Amino acid sequence: VYQPKIDIGTGKIVSVEALSRWNHPELGQVSPVDFINMAEQIGMIKPLTEWALKTACSQSVLWREAGFSAIRMAVNISPSHFLDKDLVPLIKGVIKETGMLPSDLELEVTEGVVQTNQENLAIFEHLKELGILLAIDDFGVGYSSFASLKHLNVDFLKIDKYFIDDMLTDNKAKLLIGSMIEMGHILGHKVTAEGIEKKEQFKMLQEFGCDSAQGYLFSKPVSANEITMLFDRSFTC
Question: Global pTM?
């Protein structure tokens, strides 16, 4: 399924995040937290990631061929897989096989892998050399945020929902969000806020100058066909 990211200035969809869902015949809808953790434990995260990448990139190419050329595709990469030596060859292979434009592909990785050792930094550099966009997901909740940002060549910071949930009632959360947006911009990053559910949150993010927003206020994760119908819509609050 896919969830849109909205450009806060224009209200238009500029990106969609591909999200894996598992509807088990006996267990019903299995939480991604559960099945992704299990995939990591039993060694299935690499084939799952490959499937997700191929599926998402193939869909992105279909949208581009249909005339929706301004929509980026974001795919989450597991922390354990991101540091695997096979990741960069896998990305290269998927791009070649699907015809995906590297500039249309946005890889999201949690800041738990954002360390300053040379091996980790090299992976970021290899991906940037391919022309791929990189995003630090769940920004603000990990210990490595500020220490590592100065070393990294990334395009987007995604402010974690943890802060967004309290921004209307907790002044410290509001101040932190404003500071993270300002800091991100000073360092040359675009900033996305995730977990937006209320119009008041969206309006406050507009005032802060946040670049894009994602959340149930705009759309839940939906099928490719359903999200295609939203591409021409302008979200204003």
Answer: 0.92
